[in-house]
Amino acid sequence: MPYDSFEWQQDPHPTNGVPRSAWTRSHRRLSRWHRPYTMILVLLDFACAVLASYLAGTFIEAEKVTAGFQDDPGTFTFFAYILLPLGWVVILWGNGSYDRRYLGLGSEEFKRVVRAFVTVVAGVSLLAFGTKTELSRGSVATVSVSALVLILICRYTARQVLHVARRRTGHGAHRMILVGTLPEALEVYTAVTRSPAAGLIPVAIHLTDGYAAARGIETPVPVYAGRDVLSLVREVGADTIAVCGSASAEPGELRRLAWQLEGTGVDLVVAPQLTDIAGPRVHIRPIEGLPLLHVEEPTLSGPGWLAKNLLDRVAAAFGLLLLSPVLLAIALGIRLSDPGPVFFRQPRVGHEGRTFRVWKFRTMYVDAEERKASLKELELNESDGMLFKMKEDPRVFSFGQKLRASSLDELPQLINVLKGEMSLVGPRPLPADDGDYLGDVRRRLLVRPGITGLWQVSGRSDLSWDEAVRLDLYYVDNWSLTYDLAIMWRTIWVVLRRKGAY
Fold first, then answer.
1. Is this entry keyworded Transferase (predicted)?
2. Which of 87, 83, 71 is nearest to 133 (CA)?
3. Where are the extended beta strands (E) located within 226-314?
4. In Å, how far from its chain's centre is CA 375?
5. Is the per-residue pLDDT at 63 higher than 50?
């Protein structure tokens, strides 16, 4: 429910957080979901390593697996089923894969698991070399790769269970107080609530400035001012304080707040005014005790960009070749459904503003463009941006609706990818006659448009125009080859669920 007022209460004796002892105060964190979750991950990782050893012994000849242990099979059993799994857990812990900052969201957790895999393989190889034990290289590879795959699968499954719990019950989430001015706090509120799976639930806003301007404004959570932050934390049942925007720049205030929170079990996070810039571009460079937040330029050239272009061309060529029977069947279905051309060609704006003609299977009647004007006059457009969208568009014929729902009408765009006009992943290709692409929207033209992108995996036609633009700009600013692969993986599930496709 919205709140239209805030509470002011001047704390008579604000504390500076100095009189405390690190050895006498408890360090138990108020948010405890990660403890049982971490223990479950430890048990799963250990079980996966044991299962990998068992599978290797089952599917590979026993004499190859136990090479070097023929005279002492008990030692092999101890090494394969106890020591090696324990080594996996210890190395995973040492690589930070149980760090609660990386659990539940993002790819960092999986990257650290892969690093642990490399360390395990190197450690086993060095141990075998140092003890002059003859190990089958195929067995070592099988055990290690099997353990890696099983651990990644189990961790992905555990993450999905955590996400479901966060969405449905709120368990496994952090209750957060936003500290800053009202516009800054609301911006952070919008950012963190876009993804319930992140597990961040704002429960209150504590104003540091702009009290008079905030009066009478409706807010999604209660607003307080002039309160002691720690007492407010206890009152609203929070476990995290997020310092927003300019509040983090107050000289000495952030440091004193950190001192005050030591030993209380309350987490402190800082949300700078860079809400749409991802981690790889942001680096902290401490200079004489001053932590400077350095923001790198987007990486839109270099080896990674070359690899993206190569991947696009190769994947498009193989895709057209392998999908040619499907393409022919769809073309036949279109001709039988409605007389007219199989393909729909329309000018779109591409990289650096260059215009190209996009290839798509035709899903509308041949007079669709003429009927579009009358539908606009009736104000039936359900989109608030440059594109005309209707969930029940009368211009779409029956077979075309099926193509749209399954996204099969997009397949001919592989031709555009092969020609270098589009990419597999990128911003949405927009019509050339529907806007001047000034301001923020023009920044989308720094990269080639894509068949899929953040707009597709985040809601597609269900998104507002502003949200779609924000996602496209986020992609441009934070592009990476790994990010592309993650979007393509998410696209598979979005297409299967037919979310936002019309």
1. yes
2. 71
3. 240-244, 267-271, 282-287, 290-295
4. 37
5. no
Decide: 243 and 179 in contact? Cβ < 8 Å.
yes
Q: Residue 67: which of 115, 138, 161 has the closest Cα?
A: 138
Integer Cα distance of 259 and 273 in angstroms: 23
- Cα gap 88→6, rounded to integer Å: 51
* SS3 assignment for 8-57: ECCCCCCCCCCCCCCCCCCCCCCCCCHHHHHHHHHHHHHHHHHHHHHHHH
Instruction: At 72, give phi and psi (nearest 5°).
Output: -145, 75
What homologous superfamily does CATH list for 6-29+173-275? NAD(P)-binding Rossmann-like Domain (3.40.50.720)
Neighbours of 36 (CB within 10 A): 10
pTM beyond 0.90: the answer is no
Query: What Rg, from alpha-carbon coordinates, does the chain have?
Result: 28
Are 31 and 239 in contact by the 8 Å Cβ rule? The answer is yes
**Element holding 205 (H helix, E strand):** strand 200-207
Cα–Cα dist 343/362, whole Å: 5
**108 CB contacts (<8 Å, ≥6 apart)?**
102
Domain residue spans in the chain?
A: 6-29+173-275, 34-168, 303-497
* Tokens 């790994």 belong to residue: 482
Give yes or no for a contact between 145 and 172, defined as CB atoms under 8 angstroms apart.
no
Residue 446 DSSP class? G
- 401: buried, middle or exposed (CB in 10 Å: 19+, 13-18, 0-12)? middle
Phi, psi at 405, each rounded to 5°: -65, -35
Q: From CA 209, how far away is CA 228, in angstroms rounded?
A: 15
Written as one letter, the residue type at 1 is M
| Whether pLDDT at 73 is above 60 | no
- Write out the two tokens for 447: 């990269």
- Is the model's pLDDT at 386 over the cut of 60? no
Report CA-CA distances (Å) from 238 to 76, 104, 241, 255, 340. 50, 19, 8, 20, 62
